[in-house]
User: Which sequence fits this backbone?
């Protein structure tokens, strides 16, 4: 798994290929032999060659936990963590009583059995892991080690101004690693070419994750954010492979939105999101982009659904939100641009009432459609009744 910031960050641990408590059996020599045996198969399925042999080392579970704490605090320092937590609480995506940092640390500790660290360019296995299990992990993580020799992973994964774009990039990285590891572990079987395989794969991933206690109790936004790069990313990379494109979508070919990941035809025709920017202001706590993927989670939660379904595009054209600090509590301003007025009206009348009903005591809401740069848009505000900005709604601007 990759390191990253998804609107909730993804620390560098292998998610889908790692399964909780490991039996005894691994050692540094076993780990090195596994890495050496996987090098040629990984090169074969990715079409890329290691520029230098990947390094490997074992770490105890205590050392892994210390690593995860350091990475979490590095990628989400306290001000950003608190801003993100406040934003999700304002959207109703996280309960007010949930502490995001503690949940993420528990999740990553529950999930990790092996990982690739881009800072040291080293593959780490958790001490005591069964060699068979470790091979499953390494088949995925070695693709990340290979990616690290061809891509500036740090600059990609630390670009936090637009979370939706970051999530799309991460979906390519995780999708490539997931698809490649399937081919490594089932050579010459071409199992991913079968439509039935993808239905089974999605079902198995969700079942396996739901069997993990911390994950099963996590809010929908957290569960979907963890799974998205693997499920949607693998299917996007499968589409890429089946469409006959050469190499991989690195660099300028990298998808720029979760909409492009979910609906590759939009990527193929160059459907680019509108970039929104709020005017400079004071009292800003946090701001970011939800994107198609997270708006779908929001819609599902407002509809009372425990899962997110992907039917067709929702008509998202771009969005941005900002959280302010006020003397009587935080304030949220969110602007969404839509492809057409039908999509804008569908959100306003289909989900708007439910969204406004999430207002807390002492707060009020504003939700309205308007035109922004010739495109239909929706503005949503949730703020204390006493906020002095109610008469000066900060409209989002298109640069």
Assistant:
């Amino acid at each position: 798994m990759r390191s990253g910031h998804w609107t909730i960050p993804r620390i560098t641990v292998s998610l889908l290929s790692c399964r909780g408590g490991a039996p005894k059996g691994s050692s540094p020599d076993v780990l090195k032999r596994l890495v050496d045996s996987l090098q040629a198969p990984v090169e074969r399925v990715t079409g890329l060659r290691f520029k230098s042999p990947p390094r490997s080392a074992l770490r105890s579970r205590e050392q892994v936990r210390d690593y995860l704490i350091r990475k979490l605090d590095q990628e989400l320092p306290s001000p950003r963590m608190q801003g993100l937590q406040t934003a999700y609480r304002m959207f109703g995506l996280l309960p007010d009583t949930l502490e995001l940092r503690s949940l993420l640390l528990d999740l990553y500790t529950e999930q990790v059995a092996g990982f690739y660290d881009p800072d040291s360019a080293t593959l780490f296995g958790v001490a005591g892991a069964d060699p068979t299990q470790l091979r499953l992990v390494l088949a995925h993580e070695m693709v990340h080690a290979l990616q690290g020799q061809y891509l500036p992973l740090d600059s990609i994964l630390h670009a936090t101004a637009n979370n939706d774009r970051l999530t799309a990039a991460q979906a390519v990285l995780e999708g490539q690693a997931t698809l490649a590891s399937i081919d490594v572990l089932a050579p010459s079987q071409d199992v991913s070419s079968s439509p039935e395989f993808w239905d089974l794969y999605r079902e198995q991933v969700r079942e396996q994750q739901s069997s993990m206690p911390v994950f099963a109790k996590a809010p929908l936004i957290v569960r979907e954010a963890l799974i998205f790069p693997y499920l949607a990313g693998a299917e996007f990379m499968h589409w890429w492979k089946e469409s006959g494109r050469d190499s991989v979508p690195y660099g300028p070919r990298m998808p720029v939105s979760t909409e492009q990941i979910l609906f590759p035809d939009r990527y193929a025709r160059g459907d680019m999101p509108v970039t929104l920017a709020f005017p400079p202001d004071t009292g800003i706590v946090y701001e970011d982009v939800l994107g198609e993927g997270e708006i779908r989670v929001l819609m599902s939660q407002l509809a009372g659904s425990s899962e997110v379904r992907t039917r067709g595009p929702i008509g998202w054209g771009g969005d941005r939100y900002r959280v302010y600090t006020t003397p009587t509590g935080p304030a949220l301003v969110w602007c969404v641009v839509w492809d057409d007025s039908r999509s804008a009206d569908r959100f306003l009348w289909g989900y708007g009432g439910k969204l406004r009903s999430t207002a807390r005591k002492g707060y009020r809401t504003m939700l309205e459609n308007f035109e922004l740069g010739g495109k239909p848009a929706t503005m949503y505000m949730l703020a204390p009744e006493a906020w002095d900005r109610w008469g000066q709604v900060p409209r989002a601007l298109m640069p």
Summary: The chain has a mean pLDDT of 85. The chain is about 45% helix and 15% strand.
